[in-house]
Amino acid sequence: EAIREINKAIELDNKVGKYYARRAEYKAHISKYDYEGNKYLKEAVSDLNTAISLDGDDVDFRQLRSDYNKELGEPAEAIEDYDVMIKINPDRVEAYTERGLIERQNDQYKEAIDDFSKSIELQPSKEYNYRYRGLCRHNILDFGGAYNDYTKSIQLLQEELKITEDTIKLK
Known about the structure:
80% of the residues lie in helices and 0% in strands. By secondary structure, the chain is mostly helical.
């Protein structure tokens, strides 16, 4: 039903990227129940290609497309989107983190370390970036660096748990 309504909107004005992006989100949701392979997820990527062709500076469209491409097993396409997102918005922490995760999976540890380091520089309170960077450092035998990152990750988790415990006590 929702897709039919979006299709009507697209028929009325096919130059609005948000319509295609919204339809892509609906199709991606349907893809979770797709028994025909990844038909709907591929259609979602196609809709996002159209949305991006209409509004290439919208990093949210690229974020969605990169997420769907990762699900489809297309990490190179996802990395291309992260590269463009970073050019458009160099402070987009998620783009560095997600690109670093793909690089880590592809055994590109030094590149991943650079991306996790940039994420940490931009948002030092996220423990997972220290943990991911520590894993990469461990893989290149930088045990001292890995130890320091794991220690910082644990410290941040403990602080987070303390905040949670204090919040519970207030209730």
